[in-house]
Specification:
This protein has 370 residues and is of the alpha/beta class. It folds into two domains: 231 residues, 3-Layer(aba) Sandwich (Aspartate Aminotransferase, domain 2); 124 residues, Aspartate Aminotransferase, domain 1 (Alpha-Beta Complex), CATH 3.90.1150. Helices cover 37% and strands 15% of the residues. The chain has an eight-stranded mixed sheet with strand order 1-9-8-5-4-2-3-13, with helices on both faces. It is globular and about 70 Å long. The structure holds pyridoxal-5'-phosphate (PLP). The site of pyridoxal-5'-phosphate has 14 residues, from helix 3.
């Protein structure tokens, strides 16, 4: 049996044909028709008017924060329970992250603590909300609080392509939103991201900054410091074929989640990530917690047992307030995120994973817990 990975790329004949078509067209220079198509298709899916494809989700967040004017002396609110890429760009700009704990219903940012954070600091320039593991945060409350304090919201939808919140697509909310298409995401361009907004000037400015801030002159003219952040037309070719297959991928990941929960959910000490609306999540990764008192195992023992039979499982995100690099930063709450990290893991969830592999994962977990 070969190794079962957490969330490997799912590449099929359609992807080969799409990338091949771009190569044959010779639009291998950075821009081109595949890139335009990918931007408009993702914008349509996320119900956004404008989008710019970039070489990572991190680049998208960096540009959004810069366009919102974040700089030295400012603070930006960010969940503590997320990947470091949700906070690193705050620091690129010399600003301070202020972390906020999760709430139990979605494991995403707690709106009560968000309001507490906004009340306690006067230099908050933006709020970043993350739709973790493919489920949207409680966006109604979060949007309302951001409007009340007049602070722009950035939606980190890196993991949430195809998810929704009360009928609104992930990536459609806030002043800016972004997706990631890195290799472990629900669709991939190997590396890539996209920044979206309904404000045409902001996206035009992001496109300019992402293209070395090159002025529209025949010679190379620069009035600002720019970045080399654009996605290539070749990778957009892969993005287009992957995007056309999104619903099938969501359906398969959902089937994995439901099978895991049906087989393991009744075991003592095992709790699956709560799903608020089964039709709204994209089920990027199946996540669960293991209570070491009642389950007969611990999170780490379970991961080790899976590793012993060549199955990759990983702890949930380590909260940012517990990361050495952010240990001096302010955090509102943090206990829930810390507990999720202590007890939580994600299971193999890829859309190319066969049912027999999923059954091997379930059997290995049952044997360990027994
Ligand atoms: C929640 C979250 N935010 C941001 C990112 C950054 O995206 P990228 O890896 O494309 O830079 C990722 C993915 O890696 C992520 O999972």
């Amino acid at each position: 049996m070969s190794r079962i990975y957490l969330s490997p790329p799912d590449i099929g004949p359609r992807d080969h044909a799409s990338v091949d078509a771009v190569l044959t067209s010779n639009w291998v220079a950075p821009t081109g028709p595949a890139l335009d198509l990918f931007e408009s298709a993702v914008a349509a899916l996320a119900n956004r008017q404008h989008a710019v494809a970039l070489n990572s989700g991190t680049a998208a967040l960096h540009l959004a924060l810069q366009i919102l004017g974040v700089g030295a002396g400012d603070a930006v609110i960010c969940p503590t329970f997320t990947f470091a890429a949700s906070a690193n760009p705050i620091c690129y700009l010399g600003a301070e992250p202020i972390f906020v704990d999760s709430e139990p219903r979605t494991w995403n940012m707690d709106s009560v603590l968000l309001e507490q954070a906004l009340k306690q600091a006067s230099n908050i320039k933006a709020v970043i909300v993350v739709n973790l593991y493919g489920q949207c945060a409680e966006m109604e409350a979060i949007l309302e609080i951001c409007a009340k304090y007049d602070v722009p919201l950035i939606e980190d939808a890196a993991e949430a392509l195809g998810a929704s919140y009360c009928g609104r697509p992930a990536g459609s909310m806030g002043a800016f939103s972004f997706f990631s298409f890195n290799g472990n995401k629900i669709i991939t361009t190997s590396a890539g991201g996209m920044l979206l907004s309904n404000d045409s000037e902001s996206i035009a400015h992001a496109r300019y900054l992402a293209t070395q801030a090159r002025e529209p002159e025949a010679h190379y003219e620069h009035k600002a410091i720019g970045y080399n952040y654009r996605m290539s037309n070749l990778l957009a070719g892969l993005g287009n074929s992957q995007l056309s297959d999104l619903q099938r991928r969501i359906d398969i990941r959902r089937a994995h989640f439901e099978a895991y929960r049906a087989e393991l959910g009744a075991l003592p000490g095992i709790d699956f990530m709560p799903i608020v609306d089964p039709e709204a999540a994209n089920y990027w990764l199946t996540c669960l917690t293991v209570d070491s008192e009642t389950s007969g195992s611990s999170r780490d023992a379970l991961i080790a047992a899976l590793e012993a039979v060549d199955i990759e499982a990983r702890p949930l995100w380590k909260p940012l307030h517990l990361q050495p690099v952010f240990k001096e930063k302010i955090c509102h709450g943090g206990e829930l995120a810390a507990r999720l990290f202590k007890d939580g893991l994600c299971l193999p969830s890829g859309s190319a994973m066969h049912q027999s592999d999923r059954e091997a994962v379930i059997t290995a977990i049952k044997e360990t817990l027994a």
